[in-house]
Structures are given as structure tokens and as C-alpha cells.
Amino acid sequence: YSLNVFSLGWPFAPFLLALIISGWWCGFLSSSIIVFYGQRMQMLAWITGYVFSPFSAVFYPLKALPEWASPIAKALPMTYIFEGMREFYYTGNFSWSEYGMAMGLNFIYLIASITLFRILFEKSRDKGLARLE
To answer: Residue 133: which pLDDT band, with cuts at 50, 70 and 90?
Structure first.
């Protein structure tokens, strides 16, 4: 992969921010499962990124996905991030619609994952945190 992302210039920065936020909600999602079920589910923290990556249009455009996978991809903010970066790379146009959709989905998923984390943390605390070892 000989693409230097820094050669894209400053328009790359908003997409980088969106990817960071995607990482946050993935992390909260993984952490909430680990907090509730314990260390035996720690493998989920490592698998989360790999589960989403085939549907995120990382290495290929969205239109290359099979028809059944397209709705899954359109539900992930990472798809819009990579599609927006791809459009900027090929045309030089910053896609505000792709970026807006990515940020909107990111904030929905971030709020949902933090809420899930709080709920599962409280349930775990009620059961006793010592059981997580």
C-alpha cells in the first residue's frame, strides 16, 4: 500500500477524527461485554475490528460488496469515512454528505455504546466485580 495519507493534506483530518470516534464506540462496546462477562470474553475486544472491516469498504468501494452485505455496510460509519476519503483521493472533492453521515452514525453508536457500558457496569457491580477474574 504505497498511499501516503499525509499527501492528502488537511481534508484528511476530519476523516481521521471520525475514525477515532469509531474506535471509541467499538472500544466501549467491547469493554462493556468484558466488564459484564469477564476476562473469558476478552477475545471479543480483539475480534471487534475484524468483524466490521469486511463491511467497511476499507480496501474496496461499497459497490464491490455483495447485495446482501450492502445494508450492513451502510449501517457502519466507517463505510462513509472510507468512501469519503476515496472520493477525495480520486476527485479532490470533500464529500460533506459522507462525512456528515459518518459523524451522525458515530455519535448515535457512541451514545448507545456508552449507555450499554453504564448499564452492564452497574449490573456487574451489583453481582460483584470480584467475579470477573
So the answer is: low
91-96 long-range contacts, Cβ below 8 Å, gap at least 24?
Answer: 94/11, 94/14
Decide: residue 30, CB within 10 A, 0-12 exposed, 13-18 middle, 19+ buried.
buried
Sign of the dihedral defined by the CA atoms of residues 87, 54, 115, 23, in that order: negative
**pTM, whole model, 2 decimals?**
0.85
∠ CA 29-35-36, nearest 5°, is 95
- Angle subtended at Cα 51 by Cα 94 and Cα 60, rounded to the nearest 5 degrees: 40
Confidence of residue 102 (pLDDT cuts 50, 70, 90): very high
User: Phi-psi bin for 84: left (phi > 0), alpha (psi -120 to 50), beta?
Assistant: alpha
Instruction: Identify the top-confidence range among 31-35, 41-45, 47-51.
Output: 31-35
